[in-house]
Write a sequence for this structure.
């Protein structure tokens, strides 16, 4: 059993009143067995469950908590904002300041609009791309997850891959009829699609660092070819940087690869642990949005001062404390510690890592670059390892296909603790 008695009691109550006992599917531990631990608090790199057990947390709420849980600067900023009201439904200083910060840091963005989740950011960016180009087709890649937007729920990653679902019920076929799905890392099918339908494509959307179906690191040339085809045929390139934005660096995957998209979508880190998403691009494209343009988009709680203050505080700490360089150092240390463990074991597993994002590819000796290259045995191999690590006080994501995250709250000792626990676990039959 993965969870303690109090977690089990709470989860039994949840099962009565919530489908699957959760608000987001992978949280339910369906792919790893057992029942989820119910969390009472988080501080730094540690989460504590309702039974009072501590875990070293490498999930970080699935990416937002780049400073760790309850970082004092973020808590202070939220408290200061909340005393003045939680939402006005009118412009406020915090949203303008955060927009200025995004424009300053991210390449090619001149204007930005805030929403309340990554899903909303993607949904809005795609509508904008269609409105701005007057075209209807959108292209996505197998295994990339772009939130639960209806027409993106085809061959998607995250919860869908965790549960082996190709797509979602409830999405009419007609809704996905304008979505083209391509394999990652495949130059030929990309060339074919653009040859056939290039002049009908409004947008190509990709996670430049696909991190929802394992971590399928791409060749830079593949990403560059997307840029080139879009330029040639007048389509917009959208980088979905919901995971990588303000995590890989101030300029995200765009900066890492030196490729500037036309539009970028954000979530997670930009909200500092509050519900925030954003999308942005050149002013000429963003001008198509309502009220200036004719592409409608809106939100009651968009840009609310509390969430904006949390995002601003997070970015300020990252800038002031050389955060991105420190995260890269921590990531490099994690890679060397884990690789040393993997060298001593018979287990077939490889480590993928970029900055502070990492993934253990169970069943693979070489790092996969596309969904079809993933090992079929990964889920089965991972489940007992996940449970043993949890019993050892280490919380990784409850799915073989979800990545792990480091935060500035993690220490070298924490990384050594993870490596030691992995060593023990992999040594067991
Ligand atoms: N895009 C990517 C790349 C994501 O990883 C996610 C969520 N994990 C989303 C979009 C959707 O974001 P949200 O869960 O905030 O709606």
């Amino acid at each position: 059993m993965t969870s303690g008695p109090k977690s089990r009691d709470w989860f039994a109550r949840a099962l009565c009143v919530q489908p699957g006992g959760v608000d987001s599917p992978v949280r339910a531990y369906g792919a790893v067995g057992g029942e989820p631990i119910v969390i009472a608090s988080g501080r730094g790199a540690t989460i504590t469950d309702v039974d009072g057990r501590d875990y070293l947390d490498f999930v970080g709420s699935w990416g937002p908590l780049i400073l760790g849980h309850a970082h004092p600067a973020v808590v202070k900023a939220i408290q200061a904002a909340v005393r003045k009201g939680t939402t006005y439904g009118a412009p406020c200083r915090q949203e303008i300041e955060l927009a200025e910060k995004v424009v300053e840091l991210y390449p090619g963005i001149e204007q930005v609009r805030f929403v309340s989740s990554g899903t909303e950011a993607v949904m809005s960016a795609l509508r904008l791309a269609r409105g701005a180009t007057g075209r209807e087709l959108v292209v996505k890649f197998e295994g990339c997850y772009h939130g639960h937007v209806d027409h993106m729920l085809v061959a998607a990653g995250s919860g869908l891959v965790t549960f082996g679902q190709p797509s979602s019920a409830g999405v009419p076929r007609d809704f996905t009829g304008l979505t083209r799905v391509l394999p990652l890392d495949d130059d030929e099918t990309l060339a074919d699609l653009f040859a056939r339908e290039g002049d009908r494509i409004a947008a190509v959307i990709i996670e430049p660092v696909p991190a929802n179906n394992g971590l399928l690191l791409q060749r830079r040339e593949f990403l560059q070819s997307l840029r080139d085809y879009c330029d040639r045929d007048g389509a917009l390139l959208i980088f979905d940087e919901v995971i990588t934005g303000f995590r890989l660096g101030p300029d995200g995957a765009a900066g890492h690869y030196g490729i500037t998209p036309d539009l970028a979508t954000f979530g997670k880190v930009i909200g500092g642990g509050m519900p925030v998403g954003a999308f942005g691009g050149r002013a000429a494209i963003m001008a198509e949005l309502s009220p200036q343009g004719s592409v409608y988009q809106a939100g009651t709680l968009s840009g609310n001062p509390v969430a904006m203050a949390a995002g601003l505080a997070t970015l300020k700490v990252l800038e002031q404390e050389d955060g991105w360089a420190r995260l890269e150092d921590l990531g490099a240390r994690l890679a060397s510690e884990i690789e040393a463990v993997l060298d001593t074991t018979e287990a077939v597993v490889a480590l993928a890592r970029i900055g502070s994002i990492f993934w253990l590819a169970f069943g693979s000796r070489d790092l996969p670059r596309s969904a079809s290259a993933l090992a079929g045995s990964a889920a089965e191999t991972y489940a007992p390892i996940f449970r043993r690590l949890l019993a050892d006080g280490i919380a990784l994501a409850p799915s073989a296909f979800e990545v792990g995250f480091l935060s500035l709250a993690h220490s070298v000792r924490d990384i050594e603790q993870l490596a030691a626990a992995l060593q023990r676990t992999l040594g067991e039959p």
The pocket of 4'-deoxy-4'-aminopyridoxal-5'-phosphate is lined by residues 62, 117-119, 122, 145-147, 158, 207, 212, 240, 242-243, 267, 277 (CB under 6 Å). The chain has two domains: 5-58+322-427, 72-320. The domain at 72-320 is CATH 3.40.640.10 (Aspartate Aminotransferase; domain 2). Residues 135 and 200 are 6 Å apart (CA to CA).
